[in-house]
Amino acid sequence: xxxxxxxxxxxxxxxxxxxxxxxxxxxxxxxxxxxxxxxxxxxxxxxxxxxxxxxxxxxxxxxxxxxxxxxxxxxxxxxxxxxxxxxxxxxxxxxxxxxxxxxxxxxxxxxxxxxxxxxxxxxxxxxxxxxxxxxxxxxxxxxxxxxxxxxxxxxxxxxxxxxxxxxxxxxxxxxxxxxxxxxxxxxxxxxxxxxxxxxxxxxxxxxxxxxxxxxxxxxxxxxxxxxxxxxxxxxxxxxxxxxxxxxxxxxxxxxxxxxxxxxxxxxxxxxxxxxxxxxxxxxxxxxxxxxxxxxxxxxxx
Length: 301
Fold this sequence. Notes:
alpha+beta, 3-methyladenine DNA Glycosylase II, Chain A, domain 3, 2 domains, two-stranded antiparallel sheet, elongated
């Protein structure tokens, strides 16, 4: 081969390499987007669970939103208070006191307490069973196939006699269980104490119809509402205004618990502790939003 051709080819390749290097260098300068170093700092402070409990796709999205969009620094349920404090320091904002959110299953009926149960032989998931008529008489109650358990990354849910049961010692409040429940009977509640008063039913039917499908369902008698302003009965089922919930002044609420004929107002949470104390701060009103697919879909049967 002609040595001159080899030299020319080598020179051409060298020139192309140099030209490409300059072009890439120019592009890097021209299209460079400055990244706020606080984003990486916030991301490092987060636990990296990527559970979505903060309302964002993952920890990276949340970190960017905190720095660039002013998202609250205390949205990570897994990291808890220490994580929120660290994130607040990084972005230089004051951390507003808040309450940890924990899920509540608004159903307490086990298999034995449910009437009109059918012989379901389909896919053993709540999502599938919820589309079939006759699985059980109550179209609002827990189906018990464990979609919430499968969604929980922290092993905080067990299915006991067909009822989803939350282990609050393990629960981080990520909200995954609430998002997958097809009947939307799991809601996130602000825990102002280790144990909170909640409504143990979500059936919106009239009392007579409730008794036909469940032995312990709420009959919508409004005894709780008459006893305490904390309760409001809507669509035959009570809700609790957690904005007004004061753990230190529960006299009227406890009277409502006593007067409930179906004993459907219950305390859930961690086992009682003598040193339990309320954190400071305030919380926005959170009203339980009971909903089932019977409300927005055509029910079969």
